[in-house]
Design a protein that fits this description.
about 700 residues; alpha+beta; Hypothetical protein af1432; Beta Polymerase, domain 2; Ubiquitin-like (UB roll); 6-stranded mixed sheet; 27 helices; 21 strands; elongated
């Protein structure tokens, strides 16, 4: 009590000569707000925060003074209420489809549910006295109350505030409709209340006579609810059946039906107005018996019958009243938040301890505002870059900086619910590649990541085509392959155009060896083993010096013919090849561009044979000659040997030659490889040795 008296003395000094929007003095308005919360049986800290929630911005005042005098809890509540009021004031500016997001934003910002209650109490106080405000302001505030504040009270189950906020909103938004309903209800209010009292007594006696323990209460319809039903069902006032209604709570399901029978035996039921939501629950799980009967005065009466457990489920559980009244889709994230807030209202101490040891109610979504008051829904951990792409892809591409609540922040800054974000953009340009670095933390939503990657693909298509062309030409030269038909390669790999294949290669979607590893029937080779695998070989090689080729090539029209690889050009799989019939040594297989085969073919063309690579190849190796060009230095040969050992290839010979000044070294080596992928891997690893300037196959 002493703290409350101190707070009253405090506001008597700080609120002197200050008035509210409706013209009421601040001091009186704050006392009215505290009284509303006191009737809800709120704690002392909440009442103190209500009294101190309108602190003026004075040069000699600092918020810490509140904490020193009234405690940290009160200061946090005052600050949070100030922030929530600022956000809720955006309700009149947001578009209709964003009001739901605004309500979620307010719930997300409220770390302490008492701040929401304080906000609602302040709004109810204002609405009660709104008739003194200008007409245009009345309409704006009433619309904001109906779309934001009343639904919040509904979701938290604070029916006293919800009903009055809705009725007062209707009073100022549609004064003629409101007054018409008031007159209709007032005409026979006493008669209606007397009828409800008599009905409650009769139902209680009927149930007691059957040994049924009941709790019966009147369920009067408030004005907004009557108007809403009239609009939804196109009814006149006299046709609204539940203007007079009672609710009966029993212990067991069987007692629900027994009570229903007693009601129907006492009053005449109205045909077509019975709903069994116990046998057939609503999609949201709501259960109850609803019936309408004709009373002794000939007017309708609605009766709802349910168990205490069903009532608790309807009022507090996943089948909460607001879900089916507002026709919203199920949202687990929102439900978790509301469950905790409502638990706090019922058992503050237990709810707080639960929150401290469990993360079930930790927010997973955040709600932030644009400068135009657009509410943007993002996952927890989202950054200004994510926000920019949520607004529009073009805004994201041109994003160069961000302001959060008016202050410049890094683009990797994690956003929080309730913040206002402004994106600083360039007139033209695109995203930074750094944004794709997961460790940098610039982007945390899949939408933003996909838009950034798509931009780079589109904007750098031409560059990727050129890069892919250079990569392919370099690989062809290094492997000593003839220039392929790019159009055939593109079609074989399911690309519509040459440039699409080259762009994929330039982006890194394909490797050069994958592109070149296409057989002569234009079918893709088996899945390619990645170049950076530590070893391609899983089983020991069968050494053969490159001569056992009986299962490696197929001679057209002839089976089981002795073949061998020519040592002059040393063909390997996928090289274009041709056979030459020797005297006594079967068929020697050459590359088609081999200089020796051109001479032999010119002299004896009848000894040339068509040969192809076999689809079923053995584990035998093929001999290739490589040339390595490098700066002459100590330890170079050791580095080369180490790479070849790690690659697990057989080295059949090495020749090294240095120039006169000993600045350059040329190495020629003969290796045994199994396929083109292994050869490409060896060349790539040799090229990465320091001071090596060139590695290529000699053909």
């Amino acid at each position: 009590m002493a703290r409350l008296q101190t707070a009253v003395h405090w506001i008597q000094t700080t609120q002197k000569d200050r008035v509210q929007l409706d013209g009421m003095e601040n001091l009186l308005a704050l006392l009215h707000t505290a009284d509303i919360l006191n009737r809800l049986k709120m704690d002392t800290d909440t009442l103190l925060a209500a009294l101190l929630s309108e602190q003026p911005k004075l040069a000699d005042f600092h918020p810490r003074q509140l904490a020193q005098t009234f405690g940290e809890s009160v200061l946090r509540l005052v600050q949070q209420v100030s922030k929530i009021r600022e956000l809720s004031a955006s309700g009149a500016q947001v578009e209709t489809q964003d009001t739901e997001k605004l309500r979620r934003l307010l719930l997300a910002v409220a770390d302490d549910v008492r701040a929401i209650l304080l906000l609602l109490a302040k709004r109810l106080r204002l609405m009660r006295n709104l008739s003194r405000a200008p007409a245009e302001l009345r309409k704006i505030l009433a619309n904001e109350t109906q779309s934001v504040h009343a639904p919040l009270a509904n979701r938290l189950g604070i029916w006293q505030l919800k009903w009055e906020l809705e009725d007062l909103s209707l009073r100022y938004l549609q004064p003629d409709v409101y007054q018409h309903l008031v007159d209709k209800l007032a005409a026979k209010r006493r008669e209606r209340e007397a009828f409800i009292t008599d009905t409650i007594q009769r139902l209680e006696k009927l149930c007691q006579s059957r040994g049924i323990s009941t709790q019966v209460a009147g369920r009067p319809k408030h004005i907004f609810s009557i108007w809403l039903k009239m609009q939804r069902k196109h009814l006149d006032f006299e046709q609204v059946l539940d203007v007079r209604a009672v609710r009966v709570l029993v212990d067991e399901v069987t007692q629900c039906y027994e009570t229903l029978g007693l009601a129907h035996a006492t009053w005449r039921p109205i045909p077509g107005e019975f709903d069994d939501y116990i046998a057939r629950p609503k999609p949201n799980g709501y259960q109850s018996l609803h019936t309408a009967v004709i009373g002794e005065d000939g007017k309708p009466l609605e009766i709802q019958i349910r168990t205490h457990a069903m009532h608790e489920q309807a009022e507090r559980g996943v089948a909460a009243h607001w879900r089916y009244k507002e026709c919203r889709e199920q949202d687990g994230e929102l439900e978790r938040r509301i469950i905790w807030l409502r638990r706090w209202l019922e058992e503050p101490d237990r709810a707080q301890s639960t929150l401290e040891v469990e993360d079930d109610f930790t927010a997973r979504r955040i709600y932030v505002l644009s400068p135009q008051s657009k509410v943007v829904d993002l996952p927890v951990g989202a950054t200004p870059v994510d926000f920019a792409y949520a607004i529009h892809s073009d805004v994201g591409h041109r994003c160069r900086g961000a302001k959060v609540d008016g202050r410049i922040v890094p683009l990797s800054k994690k956003l929080r619910s309730g913040q206002q974000v402004e994106i600083l953009t360039a007139k033209q340009g695109g995203p930074s590649r750094d944004w794709l670095n997961a460790q940098a933390g610039y982007v945390n939503t899949s939408k933003a990541l996909n838009r950034i990657r798509q931009w780079f693909k589109q904007q750098q298509y031409g560059q990727h085509v050129q890069t892919g062309k250079q990569i392919l030409e370099r690989e062809i030269r290094r492997l000593g392959l003839p220039k392929p038909d790019i159009t055939k390669l593109a079609h074989a790999m399911k690309y519509r155009q040459d440039d699409e294949l080259l762009a994929a290669l330039g982006r890194g979607d394909l490797s050069a060896i994958q592109v070149l590893h296409i057989d002569e029937s234009n079918q893709s080779a088996p899945p390619f083993t990645e170049i950076d695998q530590p070893a391609l070989r899983k089983t020991p090689r069968q050494p053969n010096g490159g001569n056992d080729t009986s299962r490696q090539v197929v001679v057209a029209g002839i089976s089981d013919l002795l073949t061998q690889m020519a040592r002059c050009c040393k063909p390997v799989p996928n090289d274009p090849i041709i056979g030459y019939i020797t005297k006594g040594r079967g068929v020697t297989v050459h590359r088609q561009d081999c200089r020796m085969i051109r001479k032999l073919g010119a002299a004896q063309p009848e000894r040339l044979l068509e040969v192809n690579w076999s689809e079923q190849r053995s584990d035998a190796g093929f001999l290739v000659d490589l040339q390595v060009k490098a700066a002459d230095r100590h330890g170079l040969l050791n580095d080369v040997s180490s790479v070849l050992t790690q690659a697990q290839v057989e080295v059949l010979g090495v020749q090294s030659r240095s120039n006169a000044q000993k600045t350059q070294t040329h190495m020629r080596m003969t290796l045994e490889v199994r396929h083109m992928a292994e050869l490409s891997q060896v060349i790539e690893r040799l090229a990465q040795i320091p001071d090596v300037s060139d590695v290529h196959r000699i053909v």
